[in-house]
Protein: Aspartokinase
Amino acid sequence: MGLVVQKYGGSSVADAEGIKRVAKRIVEAKKNGNQVVVVVSAMGDTTDELIDLAQEVSPIPSGREFDMLLTAGERISMALLAMAIKNLGHEAQSFTGSQAGVITDSVHNKARIIDVTPGRIKASLDEGNIAIVAGFQGVSQDKKDITTLGRGGSDTTAVALAAALNADVCEIYTDVDGVFTADPRVVKKARKIDWISFEDMLELASSGSKVLLHRCVEYARRYNIPIHVRSSFSGLQGTWVSNEPQGDRPMEQAIISGVAHDTSEAKVTVVGVPDKPGEAARIFRAIADSEVNIDMVVQNVSAASTGLTDISFTLPKAEGRKAVAALEKTRAAVGFDSLRYDDQIAKISLVGAGMKTNPGVTAAFFEALSNAGVNIELISTSEIRISVVTRADDVNEAVRAVHSAFGLDSETDEAVVYGGTGR
Amino acid sequence: MGLVVQKYGGSSVADAEGIKRVAKRIVEAKKNGNQVVVVVSAMGDTTDELIDLAQEVSPIPSGREFDMLLTAGERISMALLAMAIKNLGHEAQSFTGSQAGVITDSVHNKARIIDVTPGRIKASLDEGNIAIVAGFQGVSQDKKDITTLGRGGSDTTAVALAAALNADVCEIYTDVDGVFTADPRVVKKARKIDWISFEDMLELASSGSKVLLHRCVEYARRYNIPIHVRSSFSGLQGTWVSNEPQGDRPMEQAIISGVAHDTSEAKVTVVGVPDKPGEAARIFRAIADSEVNIDMVVQNVSAASTGLTDISFTLPKAEGRKAVAALEKTRAAVGFDSLRYDDQIAKISLVGAGMKTNPGVTAAFFEALSNAGVNIELISTSEIRISVVTRADDVNEAVRAVHSAFGLDSETDEAVVYGGTGR
Structure:
């Protein structure tokens, strides 16, 4: 007996068959004695089709109208899902983000949730209904306009509702069996992780793991909502993400949770920066003012002979051009020699809280890369993560070598990808 | 200078090209110094596609969820239209039925409007925006659930908003040039009507003319909102529907407004009904209890020799089976002889307020039919309409003969149908 929030992504409800399959799973949870709230994304490619339509009528669609358009997608999937559940003999009601009380700021296309007031959801549950809620959307507090939450928005809706309803668990259904020790498309012997802490999951998410987005995990950690990531196709137990081990099999935390990689970034190096106070600030102020998000930042000691140093950072490839243009404008003021831009890089990260108390981890990581003949270009660490930048060509080899060196390989190839490519 | 409400049907916004064409027309009205409110239907076949999807997941989709689903269609078209207008350099904001203040009762799939509170629309207009409103939908007063208005709902939304905003005119854009003296697909020489009174338009609408629905005209008459029915393709002056002649060319009302026909009905005859008080009531109570809507009802004097009479009525073909079943159950109580069901009929109606003061109209009507060799099976009249039932096979011939006999033929074939079939 409890309150369960389930979230289904677009690939799980891509067509009528998918919707009917998901409906059965939801009814199962209800039959097990739970109150059930379901957050659903738009069907399969609906959102992309709507974006195409928008491009046809206007090259730069406006934020408010674009959000109004996109939210039609969840409206369709949630209504169909409610119908499919009723057809199985159970009562269901669908609610838009606004009706569900998802209150956001007014930043269209990437709004932040500021409050959740799920009065109508509670009332619907109390009447014995299954409540279906549109993911990815809310209503702005000041203007009462429809907003969308941006990437990973439906996951965030689910966690936010789970927090507001004090749910026992937030189940995120997707097209893989859970979170794996590495990307199963690269490492055939990747293992499903049964349980992982919020902290390790946050590091994996920010290091390239795509199953859960950082934002959603951060929200879950803040409100201490256990997440259960699992497949809507297989019905197997997936991965629990929480403060404490949960589920049927409590277990010890592994030293290393997994290996993540990311090939979506590029590297910028500012060469020959005078090593004096204020120069780095000037550089990163210019980057910040051009609204570019940066990831790793590395600066080494300057050469004593020249008093010059190099500063490197990584950033999304899509923002490379903007960053370089912003930096060129500061060249005279900063007095650096040159800029190097390199988009043929990959980032490989080893994540695990256990490395705090196991001093040999860094050495073993670098040895594994060395044995695989992979050169390291940048290194950056946090308390529970080590990241390196390598050539993009080396990434698969490097991930497999590290995964194996830390004893993460499973006996068998266990990873299966069921549906499309996820949300 | 004024306030104009424009309504565009699904065939006018069937694709990106259509949306851009409509956007230009809207901007034109704005440039002419008007405040502009636009009511828009779902794009082309969107609603049908959504209905198909619903059928796939549930054979009997529920009212509430079905409405939630269908309203996604207008959400898409209105957001795209707002974007297209902005792309032309004008400000536009889209509003759902709920946001526009369209308050309805709770009868899903065919809700009635009980109030319109267009505060947000007024505010948006005052800021200089063009306001785009989703047709066909509202929000229920008691439960705050999304509702749809059923057939012709977008036209009704437009007229209701025009009334609430005290608009100067409600322009209904469609895929024909206006209301014609007969269906142009049947009568090539049908003429566009420049002006028609609410009363005559109501009779035409309830006699089979499909350009405007009875419900929308009734609403416009109650609040005295002039309607201008015109083509979104040609830009020509269309048909004004109002109390008084309007537009550039004030004109006298014609004796006969037009000839309408309807082949969607069937005829039921109850044969051998005892001619005594209460029998007709018993019959029509049974029909009403089975929720069948009937149209014409005809009973002639009974034969003196038998004391028995026949009662005939017409009804939508789709409801024929239900009505016959209901009547069969009353056979013993009423004591009638037999039931005859005939779905190979057509109804032809001559409409015009002028017939009140022109006694020869009925005779001329029957003579025209007789000359065309068309047999009359039932006759029913109102103050400004004469309707007859004939064989379905005779309908086109009959309509052309009557149209010609009353001098309605134009010199040329002027009717053009531009787009699809509209709503």
Notes: Chain B has a mean pLDDT of 91. DSSP finds twelve helices and 20 strands in chain B. The interface with chain A takes residues 16, 19-20, 23, 50, 53-54, 56-62, 64-66, 68-69, 71-73, 75-76, 78-84, 86-87, 92-94, 99, 120, 144 of chain B (CB under 8 Å).
